[in-house]
What does this fold into?
Amino acid sequence: MITIVFCHPLTQSFNHKVLESVTGYLSAEGKEYDVINLYGENFNPVLDSAELSLQMQGRTNDPKARHYGEMLLESEEVIMIFPIWWGTMPAMLKGFIDKVFLKGVVYDTTPEGALMPCLSINRTTIVTSSEEDSEVLGNFIEGYFAPLTLATVGMNNVKWFNLDHISSRTDAQRDEFIAQVNSYIAG
It folds into this structure.
């Protein structure tokens, strides 16, 4: 199963166009996938004190968070599509990680307290758009997010695609980027 985590509030955004292209490609290839549309499903990203207390026990009071965690457990591949705002992911996606990466579901700990992954994701694709140069953002995605967050829970073989300077790109450049993403997903 392929799980797509989509995080953008606007249906007319470039990120949404990427989502439509990727899902259209997967459908045409007969590949099974599910989409977690964080804004479209009105996911509540706030980790309040009651939720945090439950998480310390490996529980949640948010049925969507539990469901999303179970979806990740059943996934062999994850595709994340989101914009980079202010040098990082949108707060909605950070809240998804805070609430869905639940102890005993997505990760666990050894008796000594070391983190252990519960997921077995063979391939993780991150597709982003930004105004900033990709080289500048690589420190966040490739230096922090992929190795210290995703790999820790078992999301492996991370490949990142970013279309930088998004507002000044031509339609042809945007289409070429989407074709590169679909080509990678096909592989």
Notes: Residues 7-186 form a domain with the Rossmann fold fold (CATH 3.40.50.360). The chain has a mean pLDDT of 95.
